[in-house]
# Entry
Amino acid sequence: MKKGVRIVNVARGGVIDEEALVRALDSGIVAQAALDVFRKEPPSPESKLVQHENVIVTPHLGASTVEAQVCFTNHHNSKLFIVSCSFLHLIPIFG
# Structure
């Protein structure tokens, strides 16, 4: 990849090889990273990734918004849904 990229992972922990990301940050291949998901949650406060000066870390709170909780509460008995980016509409993908 192009040197100096920025990586954002708010999807799933484990999608990114965290040890490789630290190496890429140290070498400058990755300029910055922003993460709110990790392979092991919560991450250790001593983690090289958490402590890295070019990494922004936030707690995994995507499902903790009012909108997400309302959607979950209203649809907890449904089978499988795709959640829109706004968390305001749930679209069933299996009948």
The longest strand covers residues 30-35. The helical segments are 18-27, 48-51, 66-75. Residues 75-95 have pLDDT under 50 and may be disordered. The CA atoms of residues 36 and 81 lie 22 Å apart.
